[in-house]
From TrEMBL:
Pfam families, alphabetized: PhoH
Lineage of the organism: Bacteria, Pseudomonadati, Pseudomonadota, Gammaproteobacteria, Pseudomonadales
Subcellular localization(s) per the UniProt record: Cytoplasm
Protein name from the UniProt record: PhoH-like protein
Similarity remark: Belongs to the PhoH family.
Start and end residues of each PhoH-like protein domain: 112-316
A single MF term (Gene Ontology): ATP binding
Keywords per UniProt: ATP-binding, Cytoplasm, Nucleotide-binding
InterPro entries: P-loop_NTPase, PhoH, PhoH2-like
GO cellular component terms attached to this protein's record: cytosol
PANTHER family in the record: PHOH-LIKE PROTEIN, PROTEIN PHOH
Length: 332
């Protein structure tokens, strides 16, 4: 007969009723979320906590609760924020044997941005240490957002002179001349995720000023031909929708003092049937070239609503099932 698991006990201090209400959430929803993700039971009376479950999970939960309690000094917690911290703290999702890595903070006018989780941290460090970087994986893993944060940080530190945001307008077949409006009006809808990140980090008015001064430039991929980009931070988003020729053209635009980040999801290609994705091709061609980094994100790295992670995983399982080789031995 197994002995009962000894509860893991600790006290959070100093006790402040407002901060504890913030920590626990409405109807203890933050505690319930932690219980569900770490498969433990949380009991508390005031600031005295008792955790029941696997010792690794309860230790992880204590560390998480202490971090969240520190956040309550100046932050209104939400289920989304708790989920982000869980990405870093869940023992079921992180490799406990991996060496500890120092955190990185990126400077923006609206505050510091820190990567969430080990893979995001490695991604940011690769961007800071290499001239050409690829972030590959499903939506919601932060690959585009962190690329923009790195660009803003480099601009704030005067390491670059401008930021270029580039995206293949595959939905318009790159034939932007047939769309109404000037270049900005034609390409803006395709760059909305990049704009949203810039507005969050720098503010709408400041971004507008930088665009007017051409410190921030937006351009369709088709308009990059013939240019050499020096002292710039260039982000190519949705790169799975580039052709092999377009990807080669883009990569050979990189000049002195520049950093490029190419993001994409090789499972979401919108190119015409029979056209090979430039992203898929470049992984094979450049995987061993020094100075070029590849960071691959997995569904577990998704930092949006927990349901998004489960949706991504479900689609992945379904697509893998469809791609499984069929048994042709029947009737042989």
């Amino acid at each position: 007969m197994n002995a009962p698991i000894e509860p893991h006990r600790f006290i959070l201090e100093p006790f402040e009723a407002r901060r504890f209400a913030n920590l626990c959430g409405q109807f203890d929803e933050h505690l319930r979320l932690i219980e569900q993700r770490l498969t433990i039971e949380i009991r508390n009376r005031g600031n005295q906590f008792e955790l029941i479950g696997d010792p690794k999970h309860t230790t992880s939960a204590e560390n998480l609760l202490r971090r969240l309690y520190r956040e309550t000094k100046g932050t209104e917690l939400s289920p989304d924020l708790v989920h982000l911290f869980l990405q870093e703290s869940a023992v079921v999702e992180l490799d406990n044997h991996a060496p500890a890595e120092a955190s990185v903070a990126l400077r923006t006018k609206k505050g510091m941005i820190r990567p969430r989780g080990l893979n995001q941290l490695r991604y940011v460090k690769e961007i800071l240490g290499n001239d050409i970087n690829f972030g590959i994986g499903p939506a919601g893993t932060g690959k585009t957002y962190l690329a923009v944060a790195c660009a803003v940080d480099a601009l704030e530190r005067e390491q670059i002179r401008r930021i270029l945001l580039v995206r293949p307008a595959v939905e318009a077949g790159e034939k932007l001349g047939f769309l109404p409006g000037d270049l900005s009006q034609k390409i803006d809808p395709y760059l909305r995720p990049l704009y949203d990140a810039l507005y969050e980090m720098l503010g709408f008015e400041y971004v507008a000023k930088l665009i007017e001064r051409q410190v921030i430039e937006v351009a369709p991929l088709a308009y990059m031909r013939g240019r050499t980009l020096n002292n710039s931070f260039i982000i190519l988003d949705e790169s799975q929708n580039t052709t092999v020729e377009q990807m080669k053209m883009f990569l050979t635009r990189i000049g002195f003092g520049s950093t490029a980040v190419i993001t994409g999801d090789i499972t979401q290609v919108d190119l015409p049937r029979g056209t090979k994705s430039g992203l898929h091709h470049v992984i094979e061609v450049l995987k061993d070239v020094p100075g070029i980094s590849f960071t691959h994100f997995q569904p577990k790295d998704v930092v949006r609503h927990p349901l998004v992670q489960r949706i991504v995983e479900a689609y992945e399982r379904f697509e893998n099932r469809d791609e499984a080789p069929k048994d042709t031995s029947r009737n042989a």
